[in-house]
Amino acid sequence: MSEMLTAEVEVDAPLHAVYNQWTQLEELPEFMHSVKSVEQISDQLTHWTVSVGGVQREFDAEIVDQVPDDHIAWQSVVDKVHAGRVSFTPAGEGRTRVSLQMEWEPETLLEKVGSSLNLDERQIDMDLERFKRFIESRGSETGGWRGEIHEEQPTTVDGMDTGGEADHRY
After folding, report:
1. Domain 3-23+65-138 maps to which CATH number in 3.30.530.20, 3.40.50.1100, 3.30.70.600, 2.60.40.1120?
2. What number of other Cβ atoms are within 10 A of residue 84's Cβ?
3. What are phi and psi of 33, to 5 degrees?
4. In 10 A of CB 85, how many CB atoms?
5. In sequence order, which residues have a C-beta less than 8 Å from that of residue 157 and are 6 or more positions away?
6. Could you tell me the pTM of the whole model?
7. pLDDT tens track for 14-56
């Protein structure tokens, strides 16, 4: 059974800078405790190494929807359930609210126990707090990618393929 996790933090930095920093996926291990590395294979494809409860896992994830200064959504490519969405909204002059939603599937007994004790939820809260300190202490982003990505999927109406775009919400 998959778990839906949510967290939110208000960052004392402009929306543009906060969004740009989040696009620097290879720097996520700087503030996300369980993320050991992220390799950006292409604009859409990433390779992750994570360690949860002492168990190391690797998986590929695809960015399925990305709009600059608004949101980034991703999902694992094969097997293991891992999907999420991070959204960025103005929170007053020079401030940004970062909202994170993640879905993942605990597999080991330790992961399931941790999940039942809400340790995973507390972990993403702490990760967002570390992100906040990271960007605020630097005073600016370390880089940024401003491209847009929209996953195209056939849309069906009464079983007929219309060839349109599907709307993804996480």
Report:
1. 3.30.530.20
2. 20
3. -55, -45
4. 20
5. none
6. 0.81
7. 999 999 999 999 999 999 998 999 999 999 999 999 887 778 8
